[in-house]
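Thread: PXL complex, take 2
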Amino acid sequence: MKRVASIQDISCLGRCSLTVALPVISAMGVECAIVPTAVLSTHTMFKDFTCVDLTDQILPIANHWKSEDIHFDAIYTGYLASKEQVGDVLTFFDEMKSDDTLLFVDPAMADHGRLYPAFGPDFPAEMAKVVARADVTVPNITEACLLTGSEYREVYNEDYIKELLQKLVALGAKKAILTGVSFEEDRLGVMGYDGCGYFSYFNEKAPMSYHGTGDIFSATVVGSLMRGLTLEEALQMAVDYTLQCIRVTRSDPAATWYGVEFERAIPMLCERLKNR
Ligand code: PXL
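Output below.
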């Protein structure tokens, strides 16, 4: 069985980061070890959330695993708790990455044109150092703009997206995938660039947006890659699964806060992996 180490926070309630990555990756038949970057009572869109930063645990965990000769097929980073943590995450890569370890970086730090509340304006430059190491990175458009110092636009064309992708690869990422891309009113999906060519995949655009769907998308891409799908197949799987999660959640008005009911759509993931 393939083994992934996922480095992101535990938001105790709110279906995001590790409370999504663990069940989704496990359901896909892949082991998911975790390195919690912080423990929060909820994600940071709730007010008055609690947070304990676990920066001081990252390297002790890496050192112990190294002494046990643990091998990871992928290291998948998401929400990091502070800019101080970035250096330790990069050291974690140096310690734990083998030649065949995929570095998958979701620079989860912003959406809808704004940084998440816990981060200051100097955070994106630190996150860019993590993105620079990625084999695959999956920012949304806001994150890509912050990482590359580009102007954020809500209305854009294909040239704008291609330029952002090129800038992400220029940062050092081998392959960049922009999420939340839409060129037609009722279609939403991803566009990617691997340094040579572009690829894209779109499905229906749901009318509502929900918290944590980016984390569901990333976990599904990681799980799919570990199960042997190509990157393009993995992106299709992740777009379709994320949409399915939204479809099964639409009737719940509180879901924007508590995340999508991804649990109810897990059978779809298993069904699509059945014959792999
Ligand atoms: O879904 C991304 C995410 C992860 N972790 C925490 C967050 C967010 C988004 O707001 O606050 C703690």
